[in-house]
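WP5 quarterly update. Target: Response regulator transcription factor. Source organism: Dactylosporangium fulvum. Length: 227 aa.
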Amino acid sequence: MGQRVLVVDDDPTVSDVVRRYLEREGFAVRLAGDGPSALDAYAQERPDLLVLDLMLPGIDGLEVCRRLRERDRDLPIIMLTALGEESDRVLGLEIGADDYVTKPFSPRELVLRVQSVLRRTSPAPPQVAELVDGDLRVDVARRTASLHELELALTVREFDLLAFLMRNPGRVLRRAELLQQVWGWTFGDQSTVTVHIRRLREKVEDNPAEPKRILTVWGVGYRYEYA
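Structure tokens (predicted):
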């Protein structure tokens, strides 16, 4: 049996199409049609990845994402959103969604996003076992990070972004490059990077409003500076 994907959408036609495309690629797929069913399905058998529609009956997708992220910070979550839901899409990223796909979408594009996220969840053996910047320590092998000896609650994407930044100190990294190297996207909304950078600063900077580690290079991107 392949990796397990839980697809949560109240439109049975969308769910069935997504299921068939994922199963064709070897995934084991379970479906849920509303928020409470999604939480029950997660409790019964933790999936390897969650595809979550924003608009759901019972409990909406944002609240499902929030509750699951409180229980499981490592669960990869791809959110499905409608074109006019930009503010909700940003909020979804802020509360822990790793990626999003905008409706209407190509089922093949969604499969590629699923594969990309799962590849980064199980990376190849790293060349450097640990990255250290003063009191900030990133154990690449164990995929854990700590600051002042307290473990940080990082999502999969936040961890990947932090590790990539720390591996490339002093380099100005454009948002498009970060999208490609960290997300595996050759195209996409670069505000995704902005949201994740802001979340990272809140976790690794003593004063996120005046960052010392993750610096903005205005009009270009970001640069990581070791203490």
